[in-house]
């Protein structure tokens, strides 16, 4: 645990806690308005250390990892983090724990929360780990994210459908792993608009699928897809047959 008096360091500009095992942040991180770099934010359950504390940190730059997103109870809390306003963030990592009970999870609320965590379009790298919804919000894969070069999706074990990532014009590296319920990769992977004539995945160089135990079929409907693909990895996908 960090000192409870952290909120008094109002001139603090750089806080790097990587390699630590914080359970939550101290109360009142929103008072550190001079912060330009915050490596990690661990979402708490109490007033004063919830995700809304990030909303006041308008000058954050470079990267941020947000942990314990299971503690965000609704989309209003998520929207108060104002992630879409943080135009200096290049790398965003979002983490939920993998050991959750699907009987107590509202999948629509989970989707709404991720929707409100939408980053600024300046983002270059995105990692989502342990997301608990069944589908992804529409912002993931939109053309407006023309700076994204790398996406990692892992442990989204309840997702049945991949997001439409083929429309991202600068995407070079894509890793998808531990989607335990996904059975088919279909046309939605390439584009969400059938009228779009752009080549899917025009810049993708590296594509990997790992540990997809129910994946059976990959419908490669776009003959001109992946024109720059140089490396394809498929591992521990034992049901894949065509």
What keywords describe this structure?
single chain; 242 residues; mainly beta; eight-stranded parallel beta sheet; two-stranded parallel sheet; 12 strands; 6% helix
Describe the protein.
It is a single chain. With 242 residues, this protein is mainly beta. 6% of the residues lie in helices and 20% in strands. It is built from two helices and twelve strands. The strands form three sheets. It has an eight-stranded parallel beta sheet, with no helix packed on it. It has a two-stranded parallel ribbon with strand order 1-2. It holds the Pfam family LRR_R13L1-DRL21.
Q: Please indicate the percent range of residues in DSSP E strands (runs of 2 or more).
A: 15-25%
Question: Could you spell the SSE succession in H and E letters?
Answer: EEEEHEHEEEEEEE
How do the strands of the widest beta sheet line up side by side? Answer: 3-4-5-6-7-8-10-12
Largest sheet properties: 8 strands, parallel
Report the mean per-residue pLDDT as an integer: 92
Distance between the termini: 50 Å
């Amino acid at each position: 645990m960090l000192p409870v008096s952290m909120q008094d360091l109002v001139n603090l500009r750089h806080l790097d806690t990587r390699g630590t095992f914080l359970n939550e942040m101290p109360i009142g991180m929103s008072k550190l308005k001079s912060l330009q770099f915050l490596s990690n934010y661990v979402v708490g359950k109490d007033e004063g250390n919830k995700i809304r504390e990030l909303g006041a940190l308008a000058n954050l730059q470079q990267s941020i990892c947000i942990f314990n997103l299971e503690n965000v109870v609704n989309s209003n809390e998520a929207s108060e983090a104002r992630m879409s306003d943080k135009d200096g963030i290049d790398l965003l990592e979002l983490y939920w724990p993998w050991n959750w009970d699907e009987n107590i999870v509202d999948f629509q609320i989970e989707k709404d929360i991720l929707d409100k965590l939408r980053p600024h379009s300046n983002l270059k790298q995105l990692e989502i780990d342990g997301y608990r919804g069944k589908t992804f919000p529409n912002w993931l894969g939109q053309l407006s994210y023309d700076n994204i070069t790398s996406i990692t999706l892992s442990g989204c074990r309840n997702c049945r459908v991949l997001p439409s990532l083929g429309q991202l014009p600068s995407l070079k590296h894509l890793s998808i792993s531990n989607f335990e319920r996904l059975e088919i990769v279909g046309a939605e992977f390439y584009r969400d608009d059938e009228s779009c004539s752009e080549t899917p995945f025009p810049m993708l160089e590296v594509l990997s699928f790992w540990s997809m135990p129910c994946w059976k079929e990959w419908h490669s409907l776009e003959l001109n897809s992946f024109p720059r693909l140089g490396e394809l990895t498929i591992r521990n996908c034992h049901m894949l047959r065509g």
